[in-house]
């Protein structure tokens, strides 16, 4: 970096003044103009944006076994996740997955601070791509500041209109892709080309597009600072061994500008040249030299730019770096500590449990509802009868024929009779049918007023596919 750049003072208080943690919450918003930065963490952030956006926009077009690879088909109540098909009855798997995701976030936060915010949060990812569009169209940070201070002109209007047009088109395509995960995206494309989009599809394309345009184009860091609850409670997961971005005050102070050939020790200065570049590259507009702040999203842009300045000034890197509070105080950092061990164990157990549960999942469900209008009744043959309603759910992709059986061997009921309209039951794919049945037995066999019976549902085309459900059989106990 040129010497004059390293020694220059802040351009203006509006553009370079950081957001203070104690700033009046009713103060008017000052637009943040993040400066473009290059370095290892910037490259990692770019890679993360490319991968995540590539997955978001690309997976919707993948096919798997004749249908869209990831499709949440709400009207048909089918949720395709690559080779798996889930139904509303499988919702607890989704809840399970959300718990794992929350624990993973807590675990990563306890280890590496706001790594999620800086590299993978949707707000960060889409803001990065919107900033990229803005730089390509409006130019560098200084050009943007200069243009915004100018009066409106035809040239300024043309540039601004072009930028917002690109933002809006990209936002609408984002909304279109979002809807494409609920309506097959190829059908959605055909409907859009022929101007035949349904009202709900149209609403959600524009709603999600508008949300993307507003959050990533206009609100940006305000979402992170004022709207995101994670910024407020993440400090509860921090300790002095958590990896954070910190400014080495002992090494950097007293800060001050100087020429490259000036010895900072002789000048009574620290390594910080007070170039304010760490403020200019910050997407939330804070000054990392003020210490750890909840507005910091951990993107490490200040680390990259400070290392570049240190390189060109001939100083060692790391004035601003990833570190821990213990390391800054010269104490050892512990990665293995009670909270990280607890999070890791919980994640391992829950993840293995989810994998096992899905691997053992059967596309069949049986519920037994006993008729509560009468405890039991006696038939003309002198048998005791209980009435039940079987709820059979076929979660397979094709129709299946099932056989129903009942057993009471564990309760000593050996001669149970199952009475139903047909011996076999046909259930269409994804359907729930109600099947009334009755169970009869000679009252002589009853040893107690309430006995346990087991209904078994088995598929004719796959004898290994079965579902069992317990129920109670009520009747009189004959005195002996």
Which helices and strands, and how do they pair?
Layout: H1 3-7, H2 13-16, H3 40-59, E1 63-64, E2 67-68, E3 70-73, E4 78-81, E5 84-86, H4 91-112, H5 115-119, H6 122-138, H7 141-149, H8 154-179, H9 185-193, H10 199-219, H11 221-227, H12 230-233, E6 244-247, H13 249-252, H14 277-280, H15 301-313, E7 320-323, H16 325-328, H17 338-359, E8 364-370, E9 377-378, E10 384-394, E11 400-407, E12 417-419, E13 424-427, E14 432-441, E15 450-459, E16 466-474
Antiparallel strand pairs: 1-2, 3-4, 4-5, 6-7, 8-10, 9-10, 10-14, 11-13, 11-15, 12-14, 15-16
Helix pairs in contact: 3-6, 4-17, 6-8, 6-10, 8-10
Can I get a quick summary?
The protein is an alpha+beta fold and 480 residues long. It contains 17 helices and 16 strands. Strands 8, 9, 10, 12 and 14 form a five-stranded antiparallel sheet that branches. Strands 13-11-15-16 form a four-stranded antiparallel sheet, with no helix packed on it. Strands 3-4-5 form a three-stranded antiparallel sheet, with no helix packed on it.
